[in-house]
Task: structure prediction
Amino acid sequence: LIVDDDTFLLDMYSVKFKEKGFDVSLALSSRDALVMLEEGLEPSVIALDIVMPTMDGLELLEKIVKDGLAKDSVIVMLTNQSSQPNIDRALELGAKDYIVKASAIPSEVYEKIKTLLDKYKK
Result:
């Protein structure tokens, strides 16, 4: 599940992960993602942007954890917000990694997420 309000980035990451054999679900907002998860979606990985309208990615991460949604999902922040407080907060809330979009091309994002899946989804 990729959650980002930027349709260009959603499409770009969706294509990359589909090329590698992933089934990809997309959400344009934290609210949309929350509905999908509450309806029972159990993705192997959730990639969250931080800056989104209504509810930001850190708030969504906190709600996912608090409500016990997607318990087996590996959650990764995929954002351009590179401030240390955001990184610390995301990891403290349970994100397994924090990837700054501007610092990683889609194939690198795929490799990082694949490594995390190999590590946490044994």
About this structure: The helical segments are 7-19, 30-38, 57-66, 84-93, 106-120.
